[in-house]
Structure formats: structure tokens, C-alpha cells
Amino acid sequence: MPFSPDDLATIDTPAVLIDLDIARRNIERFQHYADSHGLRVRPHIKTHKLPAIAEIQLAAGAVGITCQKVSEAEAMVAGSDAITDVLITYNILGTEKLNRLKALAQKVRLSVVADSKRVADGLSATFGDQTSLLPVLVECDTGANRCGVQSPEAAEALATYIDASPGLVFGGLMTYPPLGGESVVETFMTQAKALIEARGIAVPVITSGGTPSMMQAADAPVTTEYRPGTYVYNDGSLVARGVCGWDDCALTVLATVVSVPTPNRAIIDAGSKTLTSDLLGLTGYGHVLGRDDIAIDQLSEEHGRLISSGAIGLAVGDRVRIVPNHACVVTNMVDTVLVAGDGLSAPTSWPIVARGKIV
Amino acid sequence: MPFSPDDLATIDTPAVLIDLDIARRNIERFQHYADSHGLRVRPHIKTHKLPAIAEIQLAAGAVGITCQKVSEAEAMVAGSDAITDVLITYNILGTEKLNRLKALAQKVRLSVVADSKRVADGLSATFGDQTSLLPVLVECDTGANRCGVQSPEAAEALATYIDASPGLVFGGLMTYPPLGGESVVETFMTQAKALIEARGIAVPVITSGGTPSMMQAADAPVTTEYRPGTYVYNDGSLVARGVCGWDDCALTVLATVVSVPTPNRAIIDAGSKTLTSDLLGLTGYGHVLGRDDIAIDQLSEEHGRLISSGAIGLAVGDRVRIVPNHACVVTNMVDTVLVAGDGLSAPTSWPIVARGKIV
After folding, report:
1. Which CATH architecture has domain B21-232?
2. What pLDDT score does A131 carry?
3. Is the Cβ–Cβ distance between B31 and B60 less than 8 Å?
4. Interface membership of B264 toward A (CB under 8 Å)
5. Paired sense of beta strands B168-174 and B134-139, if any
6. Cβ separation B118–A301 shorter than 8 A
7. What ipTM does this complex have?
8. How far is the C-alpha of A114 from the C-alpha of A118, rounded, in Å?
9. Domain A37-232: what homologous superfamily?
10. How far, in Å, CA of B346 to CA of B350, rounded?
11. Is the pTM of this model over 0.90?
């Protein structure tokens, strides 16, 4: 029991708890799957935002980390000497960000993405005077309908453009696939790869990602690398999708009942400032461990409302542990998490080093 | 124009912008209404979390501030000598919080709430040895179905209990009403006041709150004090409810278009880590100023998806200004806001002093 009953009774609430034993098991589980299928793992740090957990992922066999924003990458690199290889899966625009990216490229092996000439042009203008080329992957839209070029032919055109741009080298293909999109990924990437290679340009990396379908990653064998994020902690959305069980959830929110106004209603001191409003398609704002009868049916910023169909059986001062719908967004709400397990003698407060890094 | 076109073209994005001229106008508008109806104003600082804006509210005539958590009150008090009167509208439980509350009571005129004997007992155990009594208001549930005693008789019983508790003095009645709940507030509070006064206990304060119906606050004339929060900035939810117009929204999110993958879709660099997932009953995650045709139909953490029924007419690198659905939660996402107007010579970065204060 990484968190003892006494810990759970005395920790000031609300608090975000991390069970490192579970996190380590989750990391090793996917690394084993990836290793056995010849896939490299490049975890997305958006879930934990912690250099110390990135170090566990790297020690388990990850080839580097994925970040979404330049400021996030800066914070992670500053936080660990073990982080030497960073992919930023985001279109980077603007003088300030590009200058920061250039400084970061002096410190680690850095690669980025682009899905338009405009983004490639900015990168080239910044890196054109460098002797070592910046690898730029082409982001492909394989059905998530977010960023990305829309066809293998568009990927080919942009890869060719990048390859001819001063300071840049084409780094491969990247996608964030829709749930269950392995066959689309396989078709799109195979075609794009063939088109690009036919131009005499190598495609060193084909990277896909997302925890929900990570155990089907090998169903798109053209993929060389996978970028799961949430898998380290898991959450209610992944339990609902059958990806894991409650016992695999390393992140929980500890909350105190502050009011029991009616027999079937209790109010806790964790609201949207802790659990967030993310529903991810679920009903309710989190799962109270051990209490399948309770729904968290409403959040305001500092209040969570728990409703039971029968008597709620909670008293003011009682504590509950909640698995949130979405772990990644919860770690962005708090300055620290309380970590236990993995040889730590007592729960320890870790600052969320890369919290709130949005630029 | 507090933010010049050049500012808007060069500020690193995403950024949360505050137009202080609009904020000041919003503050003065409600203060004028309250003054003309004999209502005291005690703004909830959850919206701005900034001592400097609390000072504007106090200078305009507010009698003090409202906070939700002890740590929030600590941060605000530490940030301004002008803050000398604080109401914490939350049931405070647990040794650590109670000790911090006691320390805070040495610095400012402090009052808190309770809706159960259990909460009153904790307060009394902590403040029982004090010579100056802690005012404790009874929180009443007037239909919001969150915290609060359920009837005027229950309010009477708890007021009597508090009044007899060592270290405490009954401080009045508090409610967070449902939208349009003025008549329920009037009935509940009038009955509770009469019952409590019949016991020979004074009811010095009856405090209600909430921006959505603040201009109907005087429809519950038993109320002596009002606690609006969002009114300082306004937001999309208040525009939708007809409380204000877009020109009254002091908080906007500046974002850059990072991708235009299809003719009717654009992706911006502000996602749920900036705009939040709060819908507050609306469709879409914010309003793009000047573009009624655009819906922000999907957010991931760092991406916002803009969809238009026709050609979206945006290019990579373009910037948009967004009024979020809910201003209060946005200021909890970022470490700083960029403030302009009100005599500032240039946009200035202000740290969000009371951000993330959840305990």
C-alpha cells in the first residue's frame, strides 16, 4: 500500500496522488508490447509533466520523449540530463517560439513537425544558418480531423519541400490517429512512404500515438514509433474503453466530504479546479473508488456533487478517492502531486515541472 | 484601444488578455446598481485571482472580498494591504486548514460559513481560545442543490448552535442562489431571519451572490450584501444569458492559427489548457470575436478546432481573439495574464497570484 490508511486520513485535500508502483507497471507493460513488436516508444509527457517519470520511461526503453509545446520541452529538458531526444509534435510559428526552439536544439536531439509550407518556411528561416539540420516530420491527418496534410500526395509534396529547405531535413511522418484507426494509418503511411522514397528521400520515422489503441499499434506495421501519453497513469476514459481496470489507475484525487445536505447528496472539496470539466464522452466527472452507486453529477470550481440512488452513506469529514475521467488535464491543474511507492519511504510532494506550459 | 494592432500581432500566443478599462467599467456598473439599492458588494475574487483588481473593486466601494478556499484568501491578503475584510464561503475542515485559518484571522477581519455542526465544531475547537470571536455565517441551500442547510428551521438550529459555541459568533446567512432564485432567497432568508431573531440572536448579514442574476439582486430586499465574481470580466455564458454584450468582455484569449487543413477548418494554438472544457450549457468552447460563422467545436489540450459552415478565410499565422465560455476557470489555467488599459503605457504581464489555490 503506497498510501497508508493514515496517509489517506491526514493528507490535506484535495490532493492529486500518484502511485508510482502502478505507473511503473503501466510503463513496463507497454514497453514490453512495443519491444515484442519492434516498435520504438516515445512517450508523450503531457500526462505526467514530470522529468522524474520521463526518466523511468527512458530507463524502461523509451527512445526519447514527445512534447506538444516549446515551453513544455524546455521545462522537461531543464529538469533531467537523461532527456536527450525530444520530438515536438506541434506546428511552431512566430519569432519568439522559433528562437527558443533554436536554443533548445543546441541542448538535445530535437525534431519537430509541419503540415504546411508556411510552418516549414519559419523553421527554415530560423535554422537555415545551422550546420546540423533540424529534422522536420510531416504531420498527416489520418482521420482525427485535427492538424495534418490530407493525403499521401500532400505528404509527399511537403516532404519534398522540407528536404529542399535550408537548415531542415525531412524527418519522417507523424500522425495522431483516430480511435481504432490502425488500418487508415497503415494505408496512408504506406502510400506516403512509397511516394516519398520514390523521390529518393528516406523516411526514417513513422510515428503514431495515443493510449486508447496502443495495444493495436502493431496492426499498422508501417509504424516505427509510438507515442502513448495517458498509459502511464490511465484514467476513467480508458477504463470505460476497456483498455485497463481501476487497479491500473496510478493517478487518483483524494477529496474530503465537506457537506451532506440531503441523505443522497454529498459535496466534496474537489471541483473543476481539480477534476476538470473534461467528460471524454463519459457521464459524470469521475469515479469514486469502491462506490459504483455514486455519480459525480455536477462540478463547480471548488465543489463536486456526489449523488447516489440510495442513501449516500457518507459523513462530513469522510474522504473519497476518485479516478478522474482524464488524467492529463488533472496534472495541469495543480502545482504539485503527492507521489508514493517505488521505494519512497513516505508520500513525497513533487512539483509539476511542466505544468501550464502553453506557449 | 488598450491592445494595439501591433500588440495583437506580436504577443506570444496563446495569451490571456485583460482590458482593464472594460473591467473597471464592469466594476463600477454593478457598484452603482448596488449603491442605489442599499446593497453592499463583496466581490468573489475567483474570477481574477489578482490583488490589484481586488483593490479596484475596493476603491469602487466594495466592503471586502469573498474567497472560496483558505489558500486563496492567504494569497490575496499577502498580495494587498488594502484587503482587510475576507469572507470564505466554504466549509473548512481539518487541522491544517483550521490552523491556517487561525493565522489568517490575526491579519484581517475574517468570516467563514458552516452548514453543519461538524464544521462549526472544528471552527470552535480552533478558535475557542481566542478573545475575538470568529463570525460564522450559516450557508443556506436556496435551490442550487449544492451545500447549505435545507430549511429556515435548520438555519435557525445551526445559528443557535454556532452562537453557543466557544470562539464563534453567528455572523449571518449566506447563499449561492440558483439562476432567477430571488423570490426563493427572499422567502427562505426572511423566514430564517425571523426565527433566529426570535431567539434573541442578531442577523447582521444576509449575503447572496452570482453574476447571472446580479441585476435582480434587489428583488430579494432581505439581502444586505452581494458577491458577484464573473461580472468583472464577463464571458460567453453571460452574453448568452443577455447579462452583457461582447464589448463588455474584459478577458479574451489571443490565439494563432497553426493549421488550415481543409477550406472550412482551422486549428489554433489554444486548447483545453487555455480555454478549458467548461461549456456552461453552451455549444462550442468559445466565441471568435467578429466571426459569428465560426464554431470552436472541439478542443484537445493544445489544439482548438474552428469550423465554419463556409470557407473559413483564415491562413496559418493569422490571429483570433476568443471570448471563453467561462472567464473564472481560464484565469486558473495560466501563470500570468497580459493586462492593458487603465493608464498602463503598454501591455503588462501580471502573475495570477491566487491561481491553483485549491486547499
Report:
1. Alpha-Beta Barrel (3.20)
2. 87
3. yes
4. no
5. parallel
6. no
7. 0.97
8. 9
9. Alanine racemase (3.20.20.10)
10. 12
11. yes
